[in-house]
Amino acid sequence: MIWLRSLCFNVAFFCLTTVMCFLMLWVLPLPTPYILAVARFWLRQVAWIEKYIGGFDYRVIGAEYIPQGSCIIAAKHQSAWETLKLHLLFRDPAIVLKKELLSIPLWGSYLRRGGVIPIDRKAGTAALAVMLKAAHHAVAQKRKIIIFPQGTRVAPGETRPYKNGVATLYQELAVPVVPMALNSGVYWPKNSFIKKPGTITIEFLPPILPGLSREEFMARLKNELETATGRIVAKAIAENPRLSP
Question: Going edge to edge, which strands form the sheet with 198-204?
Answer without folding.
Answer: 56-61, 198-204, 177-182, 72-75, 145-147, 94-98, 117-119
